[in-house]
Amino acid sequence: MPDELWRLTAQEMVARLKQGDVTPAEAIDAAAERIAQTDASVNAMVTQSLDRAHEQARAMASNGHPENPGPGYLYGLPLSIKDLDDVAGVRTTYGSPIFADQVPEKSSLMVQTLEGNGAIVIGKSNTPEFGAGANTFNEVFGATRNPWDTRMNAGGSSGGAAVNLATGQAWLATGSDLGGSLRIPAAFNSVVGLRPSPGRCPHGIGPTQFSDLGVCGPMGRNVRDTALMLDAMVRRWARDPLSLDPPATPFLQAAEAPKAPPRVAWSASLGIAPVEPEVADVCGKAARQFEALGSTVDEAHPDLDDGPAVFQDLRAELFVLGRQELLEKHRDALKPDVIWNIEKGMDMSLRQSAAAHRARAAMFQRTCDFFETYDLLITPTVMAAPREVEVRYLTEVAGTTFDNYVDWLMHTYVITLTTCPAISIPCGFTESGLPVGLQIVAPPHGEAGLLSAAAAFEDANDFAAMVPMDPKVTHA
C-alpha cells in the first residue's frame, strides 16, 4: 500500500487516515519513498524532516484524534512547507546564503495552525531568495526543475511546492504570493494555487504585518484538495491585524458544490499585458468552456492601466520595509534583483509613495464597479510558457521588452493590487507539452464562489487526473 499512496488525492488520503486504514507513519514513509524516487531530477524538496515527522506521528498515535475537529482537519497528512516559513527544529534558509545554517526554535504561525489541524511537515520546498522572482533558484540549493520537461523552470516563488505536488512528493503544500507566487508555479506545473484574500490565512507578526500585498495560501493537485487546505489554514489571530474569522461554511463545501456563475468576463491582456499567441489561444478556448457550463462570457476587464507602475512602487516600498537592514549588513550576499528592489524603494519620495497608494485606491473602486456587472474575471495566469531553467526572467514577450525581473508577471501582480482572491487552475498545454494555467478572479472576499466555479471547470476537463506524474527528464 505505501508504494501507491502518493497517487491518491489529499481528500482520499485524509479519509483513509481518519478511518485508520492508513497510519500517519505509513503516509510519511510513502512520501519519503516518492521523494527519493523523484527529487534528484527536480530538486524541489530541499530539506526533509522525517525524524520530526515520525515524532509527530507517534504523538498522534498516543493522543488520538480530537473527537470533533473543525473543518480542514488533516488527521496526520504529510505536507510540504515553503522555505520562507520557520519550522521549529528544521533548517529554514529563505533561499539565502545569509540564513543557510539557520534552525529556528519556533514555528511560524502558519505552521502552528496547520500542525494544530493535524498536518505533519514532511519537508521544506525550494524558493528563490526571499521569494523574489518567478524562477525558483538560489545560492543555497540551486534550481528547481519543471517535471513536465526538466530543462525548464518550475515558476516561482512557490516553485518547489508546485513540483512537490506534481510529482507526488506531497499531497498538499503551502505557498506565498506577492506578485503571483502561488499562481505562477501552479500554472507552470499543472496544479492548483489559490491566492486568498488578505487576512484569510494569517501570516503572523513582523514589520510588514500591516501590508496586504503578500499573503500565504494553499496549493493542491486539484480544486477540492486546495479548498481542504484552505480550511486547514484559516484562522483569526489577535496579533495579526488583518486576520479574518473563518467562514461559517467551510470552503471545501463550496468546492463540492460546483457551479459556474451567470456572468463571466474574459481578457487575454487585461488591456496592459503582452501575451504569447499560443498561451492566449489555449486560455481563450478554456474561458469559452464556461459558456457550456451555463455562463455568458464577454470580453471585458476592469481598468487596471495604472497597475504596473503602482505595483512596482508599492513592491519596492515593501522591500525597504522588510529587507533594508539586510542590504545594509549583507549586501554582498544578496542577489542583484533583491538589491535593485530595495534600492528602488529607497529612492522613492513620499510624494511618489502617496501617489501610488491613491492610484491603487481608485483602481480598487473601479474593480468593485466591474464586479457589479461580472461574477468572475478570467485571464491567462502567465503571459508566456515556461522557459529554460537558466533564464532568470523574461526580458521580452510578444514584442514587448522589460527592464526588470517582475514585469513579465503582469497578469498576476495587477490582480494582487485589487485584493481579489484568485486561483490558477490547469487549462491545457502548448504544442511542446508544457502546462498552461488559467487565472480566475472573484470579487473581494469571494473565495467560496471562486472555488465553486473552478471546481465546475475542473470537472468538465481531465487535467487534474494527469498529476501526480513521473518527471520527464530531458536534461543531462
Give a short summary of the structure.
With 476 residues, the protein is an alpha+beta fold. 37% of the residues lie in helices and 14% in strands.
Describe the structure.
It is a single chain. The protein has a single domain, classed as Amidase signature (AS) enzymes (Alpha-Beta Complex). The protein has helices spanning 10-19, 24-42, 50-63, 109-116, 159-167, 183-189, 223-233, 251-255, 277-292, 307-330, 336-346, 350-370, 410-418, 447-459; strands spanning 45-48, 77-82, 119-125, 137-138, 142-143, 172-177, 192-195, 215-220, 263-266, 296-299, 376-380, 396-397, 400-401, 422-429, 435-441. 57% of the residues are buried. Strand 12 and strand 13 form a beta hairpin. Helix 10 (307-330) packs across helix 11, helix 10 (307-330) packs across helix 12 (350-370) and helix 10 crosses helix 13. The mean pLDDT is 97. The chain is globular and about 60 Å long. Helix content is 37%, strand content 14%. It contains 14 helices and 15 strands. The two termini are 33 Å apart. Strands 6-8-7-14-15-11-9-10 form an eight-stranded mixed beta sheet, sandwiched between helices. It has 476 residues and is of the alpha+beta class.
Keyphrases for this structure?
476 residues, alpha+beta, Amidase signature (AS) enzymes, eight-stranded mixed β-sheet, three-stranded mixed β-sheet, 14 helices, 37% helix, globular
Task: Return Rg in Å.
Answer: 21 Å
- How is the biggest beta sheet arranged? 8 strands, mixed
Write down the overall geometry. Answer: globular
> How many distinct helices?
14
Question: What's the number of extended β-strand segments?
Answer: 15
> How many structural domains does the protein architecture include?
1
